[in-house]
Amino acid sequence: MKTAITPTRAENFSEWxxxxxxxxxxxxxxxxxxxxxxxxxxxxxWELMRDEMDKRIKAQGVQNAQFPLLIPINFFNKEAEHVxxxxxxxxxxxHYRLKAIDGVLQPDPDSKLTEPYIIRPTSETIIGDAMxxxxxxxxxxxxxxxxxxxxxxxEMRPRLFLRTSEFYWQEGHNAFATHEEANADARRMHKMYxxxxxxxxxxxxxxxxxxxxxxxxxxxxxxxxEHIMQxxxxxxxxxxxxxxxxxxxxxxxQYLGTDGQLKHAWTTSWGVSTRMMxxxxxxxxxxxxxxxxxxxxxxxxxxxxxxxxxxxxxxNAYSEKLGEQLRAAGVRVLVDTSDMRAPDKMWKWIKRGVxxxxxxxxxxxxxxxxxxxxxxxxxxxxxxxxxxELLRDVKDILNQMQHDMYDAVVERNKTMIHEIAxxxxxxxxxxxxxxGFFRIKNEQTQNSEFEGLMEKYKISRRCLDDNNPExxxxxxxx
Amino acid sequence: MKTAITPTRAENFSEWxxxxxxxxxxxxxxxxxxxxxxxxxxxxxWELMRDEMDKRIKAQGVQNAQFPLLIPINFFNKEAEHVxxxxxxxxxxxHYRLKAIDGVLQPDPDSKLTEPYIIRPTSETIIGDAMxxxxxxxxxxxxxxxxxxxxxxxEMRPRLFLRTSEFYWQEGHNAFATHEEANADARRMHKMYxxxxxxxxxxxxxxxxxxxxxxxxxxxxxxxxEHIMQxxxxxxxxxxxxxxxxxxxxxxxQYLGTDGQLKHAWTTSWGVSTRMMxxxxxxxxxxxxxxxxxxxxxxxxxxxxxxxxxxxxxxNAYSEKLGEQLRAAGVRVLVDTSDMRAPDKMWKWIKRGVxxxxxxxxxxxxxxxxxxxxxxxxxxxxxxxxxxELLRDVKDILNQMQHDMYDAVVERNKTMIHEIAxxxxxxxxxxxxxxGFFRIKNEQTQNSEFEGLMEKYKISRRCLDDNNPExxxxxxxx
Lengths: 478, 478
Prior knowledge:
Two copies of one chain form a homodimer.
Chain A: H1 13-23, E1 27-29, E2 36-38, H2 40-59, E3 63-64, E4 70-72, H3 73-76, H4 80-86, E5 92-95, E6 98-101, E7 104-107, E8 112-119, H5 124-134, E9 143-152, E10 166-176, H6 179-199, E11 206-209, E12 221-228, E13 234-242, H7 246-251, E14 254-256, E15 262-264, E16 266-273, H8 275-284, E17 301-305, H9 312-328, E18 333-335, H10 342-351, E19 356-360, H11 362-367, E20 369-374, E21 383-386, H12 387-414, E22 417-419, H13 423-431, E23 437-441, H14 448-457, E24 459-465, E25 468-476
Parallel strand pairs in A: 3-9, 17-18, 17-19, 22-23
Antiparallel strand pairs in A: 1-2, 4-8, 5-8, 6-7, 9-10, 10-16, 11-12, 12-13, 13-16, 14-15, 19-20, 20-21, 23-25, 24-25
């Protein structure tokens, strides 16, 4: 069977992904090392994802603010683990002026900064510094801040959305009077992310704590959301950190308690990024292109008039009118009246993953019916219903699709999680090419033999099992 | 009379502005040269401004996208006027890794980039490069793109919101098949900005074309919006550029026309930034603090329970209930049940410019009345009305305020625009300390005598008079 994307997932998952991004017109490699340009269709998806996340963040009592892009090196240097974790991928600003020297434009030597800046890879330090001024008394706590920004971590082997030098994210930074509150906050935001992944992106998350080896640089506890891709690899889709007093001590975030004593606050940070889009695309898409959950589809419905020359304008007008009625019902609709051939239009919107395709031909127009097809189910779901039914049911159809997409991934994931008794079993599973998440007692992994397997099969500890932290999930990852 | 902000505007406008920003908790200087941190209350205002602008931009058929932060120097170098305009304020990234050398963290010499990058001061070049790939045929035109991003222009004398090294903006970049369409687009976006300033920010704009000396680096025509501040100085609040074929020729943005010929496109760019916030604050605020137009006020109404100890909880609950009813009517409401003293609460929200203050004391609660005060009119507008009237009229009251604020600025501006016959008259006006916009025949300014006045009084040509381009507006500016 011919597919819109070649190679197929089964043939070459990695190339399939690359071609999917192109076919759906989501993004391209920028002419800047490791960076991407997100094209309008890709960015429209991100705006929907972002706006819904922003609403949920604000519902937690968090306020948005904006902190500078640049961080003085000495700030960055204040927390030892943190600097060790990020120094090797930091973009450094050393000059503030260009000058043509011998006809070549270059950094003006006279503009050299006495102290260079780095472009933020994350903002714990610069926000820690602000918090040290903004937090004075117990009355100022909790302080809950978030920002939506670009960050930069120099990447040598970039992949669109999954790993790029510049990416876009929200980073939340909260401060509390006690460790209990801070830890509860890190867990609450972790749960908030899990709910979002399920309800909005239709993706189930493996949720748990990172082992010490995999923690964020400067955290006491890191809680992660791991998604299982169709090729069995893990994708870390978000993290929430209990930072203890690392940053409050480095930056002097202190408050006067009710008892009149000066104490260090306890902080958390939590973030999700455009990487989530990589998960969204790799989780749901098929060999014909993107499949978008209705909640984040820029167009939830595309109406395609199947025109014959003699009545193209009438049919277009009829389709536009139906589109308007659907919009009035709160649905995002595109009526494709462009002058492409009908099959080309269909494939265009199949590749872009529009949840519901509505076709109207001359006969349908006469009979006041439409032919609808769900993107996730394809031809099997194709049926003809009346305009009235479409208007009445469209939201239910989209809701059903949103839920079905989630359920389908849950089912698939069941085949991707393997109970493993010991390292011998793990090795033989890996050797025979088994893919997915391997659940094994963590104590089994505390030895050099496991280190060897990590090296050989490029696996890593993804997280502890939240239900039973004696167990750890192990997988290859993006 | 004691004022909440000292000094007053009349005493020292510049210090007043600085203290206003602090008193209203809008922003602070960041620990990064020339940069600011926008605090939650300031950012909440920006989000309202941004979301409304974004809606209007999309209504013009423009699509949002996202282009990289960094620009290769050679891109930047392709348009001669452009590079000359921005090279002197470009932040340069020269390394991609840090290393501790002799215990000091610094750029790793082994990570030096063969070609440095600059942090975008604006994105005509990187978007021009993308357009050269995205535009192939006349069918791809017009192409209308926008992005909301941070940009950087190194500032030696920064002022919060008015002039900072890093700032936030939208930059639109459109491409067309003909010069006519491009010029009409630049003018249409210019008008769109003018409507926005009037309807949303309640600010009248002096709108017109920049003289050649003041054009954007790389534009054929620059259309500007100039606002008159309370001290008579001009603030450039937005610009729209007809870029001719400067960038399409530098970057090879070419399309195959209907006639089968390959032609260069015509492009425009247009932007407004967080600088608009500076205008908003300096246009409307008074000696007691911020005055916000309801359209961009994070809280349009603040309810302050004037508590007596014995019934504080009942009164708070009563106030919360009223707040809920107002929210259900679509109004943004804060009910301030914090444990500050009532007068402190009042002054806090006066300083932050909340449009409508609603006070409820024990007697008001008994009588189901409230005492309301409009921020722009102060005590003179204080009156007691029934809860029912408040709920019925609140939107009208806010709308009226929005309009009255605009009208008040229009009236004030009339006293700030001066018809000037010749340079002698201009000099004597300036010498006697007259402030505002001076309207003079442009031909009068084409000589060294005017250059001398520009130097001496730090004035500049703001723009030509749109109604009669023989005349030019001259003013001091921010």
